[in-house]
Structures are given as structure tokens and as C-alpha cells.
Design a protein that fits this description.
This protein is an all-alpha fold. It has 2 domains: 38 residues, no CATH class; 158 residues, Ferritin, core subunit, four-helix bundle (Ferritin, Up-down Bundle), CATH 1.20.1260.10. 67% of the residues lie in helices and 0% in strands. Helix 3 packs antiparallel against helix 6, helix 5 packs antiparallel against helix 6 and helix 6 runs antiparallel to helix 7. The protein is elongated, with a radius of gyration of 26 Å. The termini are far apart. 31% of the residues are buried.
Length: 224
């Protein structure tokens, strides 16, 4: 029995779609892909606006990081524990560098360091006071005035919820069209999740209880 060649059927399929040959179809697919790539490139290169998620993330994370740097430098300079000193020193250097990176973005985007929107508005959770995870002025003073060994525990109990709040803040910007913003957000989330585990283990070694889990719907946190 003679079998009909499949080649004409394929050609017929292309012609029904309006293409005379596979090359025409391929060129059309390539053209669509090129347009899509160009559009994505446009989005990535277009500076974020003043009320954008990217600007909100940068501004809020800079404030959040600044307090972490402050706490880390306090304990770094007074602790007698070399491990605590190393961790605090690394946090201070890393987060200070990330603050500089975010300040650089705002400068390149032509935006001011501070915006008109309330903190956390870009994430759908406006706050008027302290952002989630942030320590109160009284807690910062307690850390500064505590003797070295006590300060170590206070530092860990303050920094754990501080980190726990920074992780979802970072994850909230993962869908950005700006690769540099996404890369920094991912780096923050990964490093701080790792540091949370390390600090919880250190508290356990001290015989101290970990702080209560962070509640993103609560401004700041209460240190007990």
C-alpha cells in the first residue's frame, strides 16, 4: 500500500497558517522573540519612578540596614567574644556596602533619598512608626549601656527579628524588571536567613530562649 508522504502535510499546515515554508515561520518566531527581548530591555533600562516598588524598597531597606549597622557596630566594639565580633563586623561592612549600592541606584534614577510615600507603602503595609523588626530607641540604648556579655545576648535577640523582617521585604521585590535590584534582594534574603540560623544557635549555646517569631503586621517589635 502506498503511503502518502508526510512532507506535503507539513507544508499544508504551514500554508494554512499563512506561511509558505518553515523558514518563514521561524523568521516570524525570531521576530516576536526579538520584540519581546527589546521590550524587556526597555523595562530594565527605564528608571523607576518616585512611587515605584524599586524606589520604595531601596529607601526602606536603607533605613532598615542603617539600624542593623548601628547595632552591629555597638556590639562589635564592646564584645569580648571573638565570634560575636566577627559576625557583627561582617554585618556592619556588608550592610553598609548595600546601603551605598541602594543610594547609588536612587542617584542614577534621579530620585531623592527620601520619598513622600509612607514606609512600607510599596509592599502594601503602610507604617507610621518603626518598620517591622526594628528596635526601639530604648532597646538601642539598652544595648549600648549593657556590659559585654549581656550585650551579646541583647544583640542577638534584637538582630534575629530585624533579619526576619528584612527577608520578606526582600522577597517582595523579586518580580522587579531591574536585574540589579532583584540580585541584591536575593542576596539579602539568602544571607540573612543563614545568619538567623546561626544567631539562633548561638542563643541556644548561651542557654537563652530565642525571641518570638517576627510578625510583619506589627510595627517594630518588643524585646523582653
Amino acid at each position: 500500500m502506498h503511503r502518502r508522504s508526510r512532507k506535503p502535510l507539513v507544508r499544508e499546515f504551514f500554508e494554512k497558517l499563512g506561511y509558505r515554508d518553515a523558514a518563514s515561520l521561524l523568521l516570524s518566531v525570531v521576530a516576536v522573540a526579538a520584540v519581546a527581548a527589546a521590550f524587556l530591555g526597555y523595562l530594565a533600562n527605564r528608571p523607576p519612578t518616585d512611587d515605584s516598588d524599586e524606589a520604595g524598597f531601596a529607601r526602606d531597606m536603607m533605613v532598615h540596614h542603617a539600624q542593623a549597622v548601628q547595632m552591629a557596630e555597638i556590639v562589635r566594639d564592646k564584645t569580648e567574644d571573638e565570634t560575636i565580633r566577627a559576625i557583627a563586623g561582617d554585618m556592619a561592612i556588608t550592610q553598609q556596602g548595600q546601603i551605598g549600592q541602594m543610594q547609588g541606584w536612587l542617584n542614577v534614577w534621579g530620585l531623592p533619598i527620601t520619598g513622600t510615600e509612607p514606609q512600607m507603602a510599596w509592599i502594601g503595609h503602610e507604617v507610621e512608626g518603626r518598620m517591622p523588626g526594628m528596635a526601639s530607641p530604648e532597646e538601642i540604648q539598652e544595648l549600648a549601656e549593657a556590659p559585654p556579655k549581656e550585650a551579646d545576648e541583647i544583640f542577638l535577640r534584637l538582630m534575629i527579628p530585624h533579619h526576619e523582617a528584612a527577608v520578606p521585604m526582600s522577597e517582595a521585590i523579586y518580580d522587579t524588571d531591574h536585574p540589579a535590584v532583584r540580585q541584591l534582594a536575593e542576596a539579602i534574603a539568602i544571607s540573612q536567613e543563614s545568619e538567623i540560623q546561626m544567631m539562633e544557635a548561638m542563643l541556644e549555646d548561651m542557654g537563652a530562649e530565642p525571641p518570638e517569631p517576627m510578625d510583619m503586621n506589627h510595627e517594630g517589635h518588643d524585646h523582653e
